[in-house]
Amino acid sequence: MFESLTEKLGQALRNLRGVGTLSEENMAEALKEVRSALLSADVHFKVAREFVERVQQQAVGQQVTKGIAPGQQVIKIIHDELVRLLGEGTTALSGERPLKVLMVGLHGSGKTTSTAKLGKLLKKRGYRPFVVACDVYRPAAIDQLEILAKQEELGFYADRVSKDVPAIGSAALAEAQAATADCIIFDTAGRLQIDQDLIEEVKRLRARVQPDEVLLVADGALGQEAVNVAKAFHDALQLTGLVLTKMDGDARGGAALSIKTITGVPIKFVGTGEKTADFEPFHPDRLASRILGMGDVVSLVEKAQETIDQKDAEKMAEKLRKADFNLEDFLAQMQQVKKMGSMQSIVGMLPGMSGMQLPEGADKQMARTEAIIKSMTFQERRKPEILNGSRRKRIADGSGTKIVEVNQLLKQFSEMQKMMRMFKGGGGKKMMRQLEA
Ligand code: GDP
């Protein structure tokens, strides 16, 4: 998310970071670059202009705090302005249980996927979610939601015969109540463009089910176009929040930065990948830190806490300490990490690495490693030293990889074991001393 903006802002601010005294020239120079970074991230030009003006006013008027480099103070101002732009205040869902959420948006925006993602997230928060397919025009959309609901073990309702959307809504509410669900998410029909029929249909459904939230799912990769779409939907439907999808990949991020200012509607969630785990509540302050290359360790830790089993983690740590970590443990660890989402989305949360783009296929590489280990017998995973030439060939064939890849993995693993043994034997301290020297 925001890789290129992070990189460009990083460049613009690099010169300021170490500056002892701020002159008008170096400020003006840096702010010009900030403005152009925002514009090339597809931020609305008015928003970019106001942003720079506000930063300038505050930087000029500020007291120089002792002990803090002026350059750092400017970065703090930019951080706070970014938070303001992304939307201050709470982005939590409002409403008592049963919580009713209407998802609206155009075709292909990621509405159905986001419906399941939101269900999964709320389930983790202790809700009993129920998802409802209200797209009566595309049977494929109903199937898609049903598959995702099954996968995430969410309650599901659809009516493949009726075309009466409000009636489907009422029936779904009754079903959800019977299933003791306390959160009902309606996936509505999309259109290629916003049109009156679509709006009327959503309005009728809304009148019937009385949702607590009406969330627009907008494709963040569309940049300014997403902002226009959001404005049109908000004018017609009075949205309560936004879900910005496809913020992974090469999304330039301009939509996220302009949409609140232009529409007044807060972003509540962002989609960062195709997997159902690639979905995050929107935290303006954390994202501002991420954009400024400071990482977002808080979200990373939260994600880890949600997905990684604490007992397993302790067991693994113990194994690592005792240097008794075999390939089977390695596989288990890899599977845990995968549950947290794509590698790119994880790396983006690390301080100093937010702008880093992983090489194409990092996730595929992980899948190949996984296939190699899975092609080994349990004994081989526990004692890789028994892997002779013919076993390695069998594993390469079985996993659809090459012997060199198997060899490479085993070599890496053996290096890792050596390191673990060094730490186990009290070599850790010695090694640290060496590193410090
Ligand atoms: P709908 O027509 O609005 O219901 O859209 P879908 O939910 O069917 O999504 C359209 C496509 O976008 C699918 O291929 C999804 O996998 C993909 N998609 C949805 N959300 C995201 C996201 O956050 N990131 C990426 N990369 N793809 C997404």
TrEMBL record:
Stored InterPro entries: AAA+_ATPase, P-loop_NTPase, Signal_recog_part_SRP54_M_sf, Signal_recog_particl_SRP54_hlx, Signal_recog_particle_SRP54_M, SRP, SRP54, SRP54_GTPase_dom
Domain (SRP54-type proteins GTP-binding) ranges: 266-279
GO terms, biological process: SRP-dependent cotranslational protein targeting to membrane
Family to which the UniProt record says this protein belongs: Belongs to the GTP-binding SRP family. SRP54 subfamily.
Subunit field text: Part of the signal recognition particle protein translocation system, which is composed of SRP and FtsY.
PANTHER family attached to this UniProt entry: SIGNAL RECOGNITION PARTICLE 54K PROTEIN SRP54 (PTHR11564), SIGNAL RECOGNITION PARTICLE SUBUNIT SRP54 (PTHR11564:SF5)
GO cellular component annotations of the record: signal recognition particle
Major location (coarse): cytoplasm
Protein name: Signal recognition particle protein
Pfam families, per database record: SRP54, SRP54_N, SRP_SPB
Localization per Swiss-Prot or TrEMBL: Cytoplasm
PROSITE patterns: SRP54
